[in-house]
């Protein structure tokens, strides 16, 4: 997070003092570093420059229109999982031929949008879906490029709720089922099988599962003598949420991908999300109350699990740092919690944290991915503001939702 730092005792994002900004802006709110977004994307692109893949940003990780525009201008495509994300990507200026549509349960209406917009690929995840695409394409007098997502039954050794490549997961088609389907595909005259796709999970911190996946894909493609335009290798590249974690080193993997691409003579597609946007954002929140408990003190924030769901959904840890430092320490344990009427509305337990008082401000770190995109109106709370900062210039990329408008709908 090179664009977040302390100057003296105060937290800065790029050249903006959070403390000074709080005189104008009410909490809670998300704030992102545009320079960090650009840095992350260009670093990823440079790592795989010899392969020259199509980098389709996983829009589900952060679907803010302005962030999609920033990435689109850098040359990114989009991996979308709904008709809404598809239309947002197009609105952001991302070209249709740089969009892949993933997901296990695409509706007929969503597929019609994808077909009519002539996107690059619809990544089918079942035989039934492929047949539906073919039927719709026939009615629309189109020939549609599809990919087929495989389930390689590889354990990515990540949290069970973000594992997607094991046989027990709902995603993709088993290799056995794919081979059976392949015998029928010639009867589907309005689709072309132009790609195979795979995505084994998220927040993966070493390249071993990816190496296994490449081996499975390479063996299968050669065995079936498939002539593919693309192989979509998905995403899932992890970042360091704690000081003990190390972000995945992609240099070794990039060499494996380069060899894989050359041997099979196909274009590679990646779908990174978290690795591009994860460490670019902070959630700024105010300490509303401090309440003494039997074994710890509760630091009650004005941000809730409706604003930031990852800790409740994934038991995820996000470091919580003060907006202004001091040298005094709290006694015993404290737990940062939110106002939502759920026991899971909590963000982390700390010992020996700096002294903290009511009306102080904190920042929850690394919230760029699956922060705002998972937020909701639970407890009839308005969606909070999102702000994009470039050096010391800022713009609101989502204003706080109006409460009166919320309750009228």
Describe the structure in your own words.
The protein has 409 residues and is α/β, with parallel strands linked by helices. It has 2 domains: 160 residues, Beta Barrel (Lyase, Ornithine Decarboxylase, Chain A, domain 1), CATH 2.40.37; 241 residues, Alanine racemase (TIM Barrel). 27% of the residues lie in helices and 25% in strands. The strands form 3 sheets. Strands 4, 14, 15, 16, 17, 18, 19, 20 and 21 form a 9-stranded mixed beta sheet that branches. A hairpin with a 2-residue loop joins strand 1 and strand 2. Helix 5 packs across helix 6 and helix 8 runs parallel beside helix 9. The longest helix is centred in the middle third of the chain and has 17 residues.
SSE arrangement:
Elements: E1 4-7, E2 10-13, E3 16-17, H1 18-21, E4 29-33, H2 34-47, E5 54-58, H3 65-73, E6 77-80, H4 83-91, E7 99-101, H5 108-116, E8 121-124, H6 127-139, E9 144-151, E10 173-174, H7 175-182, E11 191-197, H8 208-224, E12 230-232, H9 251-264, E13 267-270, H10 274-277, E14 281-292, E15 297-301, H11 310-314, E16 320-322, E17 333-337, E18 346-351, E19 361-364, E20 385-390, E21 393-398, H12 403-408
Parallel strand pairs: 4-20, 5-6, 5-13, 6-7, 7-8, 8-9, 9-10, 9-11, 11-12, 12-13, 15-17
Antiparallel strand pairs: 1-2, 2-3, 4-14, 14-15, 14-19, 16-19, 17-18, 20-21
